[in-house]
Amino acid sequence: MTPALELRHVEAWYGESHILHDVSLTVMPGEVVTLLGRNGAGRTTTLRAIMGLVGARRGSIKVNGAETIALPTHRIAHLSVGYCPEERGIFASLSAEENLMLPPKLQPGGMTVDEIYAMFPNLAERRHSQGTRLSGGEQQMLAVARILRTGARLLLLDEISEGLAPVIVQALARMIVALKARGYTIVMVEQNFRFAAPLADRFYVMEHGRIVKTIAADALRAGMPELTELLGI
Fold this sequence. Notes:
233 residues, 10 strands, 9 helices, Rossmann fold, alpha/beta
């Protein structure tokens, strides 16, 4: 089976700052994979490198077998890749539904508005509310929902649980489970290990721009002592 995402010996820079060093990882279709690490480890830069949003990158990044290392960001997005950055990017002057409808459809098979509202009942209730009036949790749901409407099947989610109330975090966990059941492939950057632990098929631990440990979900319990030391949890 062709990997949904494959990085081989990826290097990335911001200006003269060399951030990623020889990063290699594989994500198969339908998997949920989490990048773990302390702040500054290179996890967000890895997602940005996949999308072509760093100053320079080198190596190989394949999406469903297609090499993307030389492609601009908009061409990568058209390969059915959706990126949800940590800052969310909600347009304050637009309503929730206007925000939802703003991105173009990139691939067939995106979720309908009704399907999205069934997954996110809060957004259905707040569809006419301006972006500034949405709670942090509602803004995060909206940021993910916009991607689902575009038809993207490979989702790159950066710290979607950060700073949110436990009830919202639980709702996002249910969303991940539902998307996995629908066959979506998900790469998450997460600081909240309790959120990520029951969701992911595999964990890549990063330090100083390198992957230093790979742990499968069924080996998580045995790997916890080393993981605790690496992450300081």
